[in-house]
């Protein structure tokens, strides 16, 4: 019967960690992460969920004769901002899950 008590404690601990993870995910969703491309002429701002919140373009980057370059710079800035947001979430969740040995991507 002693093993059952340990299982109960483990389940309580898992529920507590799950609640903490949900709270942290909500908090991280409110954070903003940014990235730039084109030497700062394009800036993308995303939240902790990786959702694009803002896109700032310098007037000099808008060349009607080279929209492909502008598109590439936008994609680069957004992709990098989303990558940074994902890294931030993984780092923060890693602090919470600590030595639990959960595989990456579990949260």
| Count of alpha/pi helices | 2
Q: What is the top-level CATH class of the domain at 26-96?
A: Alpha Beta
Helix content: 55-70%
Question: Strand order, biggest sheet?
Answer: 1-2-3
Provide the CATH topology of the domain at 26-96: Ybab, Chain: A
First CA to last CA: what distance?
A: 32 Å
What overall form do the CA principal axes indicate? rod-shaped
CATH architecture of the domain at 26-96: 2-Layer Sandwich
Biggest sheet statistics: 3 strands, antiparallel
- Written as H for each helix and E for each strand, in order along the chain, the element string is HEEEH
Helix/strand/pairing category: alpha+beta
Low-confidence stretches: none
CATH superfamily of the domain at 26-96: Nucleoid-associated protein YbaB-like domain
Report the count of strand segments.
3
The whole-angstrom Rg is 20 Å
Q: In percent terms, what proportion of residues is strand?
A: 15-25%
**Average pLDDT figure:** 87
Task: Walk me through the structure.
By secondary structure, this protein is of the alpha+beta class. It has a domain at 26-96: Ybab, Chain: A (2-Layer Sandwich), CATH 3.30.1310. It has two helices and three strands. It has helices spanning 2-30, 67-97; strands at residues 32-37, 42-47, 52-57. The protein has a three-stranded antiparallel sheet. α1 (2-30) runs antiparallel to α2 (67-97). It is rod-shaped and about 70 Å long. It starts with a helix and ends in a 10-residue tail after the last helix.
Keywords, separated by commas or semicolons:
Ybab, Chain: A; alpha+beta; 107 residues
